[in-house]
Amino acid sequence: MGERRTAESVLERGLFASRWLMAPMYLGLVVALLMLLVIFFRELAYYVPQMLTLSPEKTILVVLTLIDLTLAANLLLIVMFSGYESFVSKFDFDPGTDRPGWMGKVDFGGLKMKLIASIVAISAIHLLKRFMEIGDPDLPAPSEGHLFWLTVIHMTFVLSGVLMALMDWLQARSAK
């Protein structure tokens, strides 16, 4: 009986320690965040010299691209911090007043909702950019089929988000 208990304990400790296998993945997301930063500044460096000659429509497209990159970076931060705290380990330092308000408070359900909301926002910006390109003489007009599928994909993300929120609401209601 004691030998079985020891084997079970070793297995459980090993399974619990395996959560640290996720840590390199979160470090990889830091590299992805750095990639987004480089691309953001590359876009900025490309368009700033053209600032005085850009049309209002092209300026809006540039701004939407920068917003898109920023939203993706925010999404990465949320996944990195919340995922690490939820699945690997709590942060052991005191960031003081610099700590974001949501940090340490976002559980898996909250993370899931923030993730889908970010995906919907990114999809909406991408779709808006494609619609705005319709009148741009410098760009080839997107085909109706392309716009149709972008809209279908966006609406699928929206519907998925609504269904996830509904499932969370039903689950919380049934727990009461």
Please outline the major beta sheet. none
Approximately how much beta-strand content do the residues carry? Answer: under 5%
Question: What portion of residues is helical?
Answer: over 70%
Any idea how many domains?
Answer: 1
Query: H/E order of the elements?
Result: HHHHH
The overall average pLDDT, rounded, is: 85
pLDDT under 50 segments (min length 5)?
Answer: none
Tell me briefly what this model is.
This protein is an all-alpha fold.
Explain what you see.
The structure is a single chain. The chain has 176 residues and is mainly alpha-helical. It has one domain. It has helices at residues 2-17, 23-47, 56-87, 108-132, 144-175. Helix 3 packs antiparallel against helix 4 (108-132). The chain is elongated.
Please describe the topology of this protein.
Elements: H1 2-17, H2 23-47, H3 56-87, H4 108-132, H5 144-175
Descriptors:
176 residues, 5 helices
